[in-house]
Amino acid sequence: MATQEKRVSLYFLVAGYPFARDTMEPSKEYLFNHKGCYFAALYTSLEQGKKEMKNKQGPNKIFSFSGTVWTQNILSLVIYEGHRNGTEDVENMDRIPWLEYNIKNMDYAALPAPRVFATHLPYYLTPRDLRNKRVIYVTRNPKDVVVSYFHFSKIMYTLEEVSDFNLFLERFLAGKVLGGSWVDHVTGWYSHAQDFNILFLTYEEMKKDLRSVVLKICNFLGKQLSEEEVESVVRQATFENMKKDPRANYEKIDREGTYQIQHQVANKNFQQV
Questions:
Q1: How confident is the model at residue 259, as a pLDDT?
Q2: Which of 24, 97, 128, 131 has the most crowded Cβ, counting Cβ within 10 A?
Q3: pLDDT tens-digit profile of 199-236?
Q4: Among residues 133, 135, 148, which one has the least CA distance to residue 179?
Q5: How many CB atoms lie within 10 A of CB 116?
Q6: Catalytic: which of 34, 120, 151, 185?
Q7: Is residue 54 a part of any domain in this protein?
Q8: The domain spanning residue 238 has which CATH number?
Q9: Who contacts 134 (Cβ-Cβ below 8 Å, separation ≥6)?
Q10: Structural domain of residue 196, as residue ranges?
Q11: Nearest 5 degrees, angle CA 126-CA 127-CA 132?
Q12: Is the dihedral of CA 203, 204, 209, 212 positive or negative?
């Protein structure tokens, strides 16, 4: 009898495996795999973007990773006086375009210095000359990352919407999401830090002491701002003010027409880990 029960259990385990395997795979309509990293299928300009970047000789190329919308806004305020004082109405996506996704078909070679780009590329896919430039790498608690990504996928038409969070979590842990494995991405950059001129920041320290982070960024970039200018950056980079600033909200690219800034840390109401 025990043998029969064991056989039945094994039968259902094997029969159920293909179903679990199929649902674990992200839809090819939304993602494709390139050298171990997943990219948005609607924007396939990765190789072109790397080609365009390869020939640039600007004095500064600063790449920001993760926590991107917030970091883009801070960098725009620190680097560009016209953005800081409000005399220039330029969206962050135009000031700091995506390296791997040339969404607006911009001529990257024609961008004025300093050239600033955002990217989620792992260290091994970045252009070679990045090693001679400045890199700002922002990490965030993976618990918050997966929750934020899960909700973000529900409003972004370029991302597959997965209704079941448990399945989404399994994909995230397996690295079968946009950007690939969080663990591999972070450990890869940290273990190769000596190969780059890099500043590591965390989302949590930005949330806790934004002014201190702004000063770190200014020092790293060699950007000298007055006390008044630093305070202006900090004030405009708060979530409250970013929500009011159409330059910072990516409001033209989601389903509903508005990208809401998310800033919760350790969402205990949702996380069960």
A1: 39
A2: 97
A3: 999 999 999 999 999 999 999 999 999 999 999 999 99
A4: 148
A5: 24
A6: 120
A7: yes
A8: 3.40.50.300
A9: 60, 61, 62, 197, 198, 199, 220, 221
A10: 16-242
A11: 105
A12: negative
Tell me if residue 144 falls in helix, strand or coil: helix
The radius of gyration of the chain's CA atoms, rounded to the nearest angstrom, is 21
Residue 163 lies in a domain: yes
Q: Centre a 10 Å sphere on the Cβ of residue 183 and count the other Cβ atoms it contains.
A: 11
Q: Tell me the per-residue pLDDT of 99-154, one tens digit each, with 9 for 90 and over.
A: 888 878 888 888 888 889 888 889 999 888 888 899 999 999 999 999 988 888 88
Check: CB of residue 200 under 8 Å from CB of residue 220: no
Q: How many domains would you assign to the chain?
A: 1
Q: Is residue 169 part of a domain?
A: yes
Handedness of CA 245, 246, 251, 253 (dihedral sign): negative
Q: Is the whole model's pTM more than 0.90, yes or no?
A: no
**What share of residues in the chain are helix, strand, coil (percent, to 5)?**
45, 10, 40
Q: What SS3 state is found at 124?
A: helix
| All residues at 6 or more sequence positions from 9 whose CB lies less than 8 Å from its CB, including other chains | none
- Using CB atoms within 10 Å of the CB of residue 208, give its burial: 0 to 12 exposed, 13 to 18 middle, 19+ buried: exposed
Report the interhelical angle of 210-221 vs 227-236 (nearest 10°).
120
83 catalytic residue (yes or no) = no
Contacts 24+ apart (CB under 8 A), 190-197: 192/123, 195/123, 195/131, 196/123, 196/130, 196/131, 196/135, 197/131, 197/132, 197/133, 197/134, 197/135
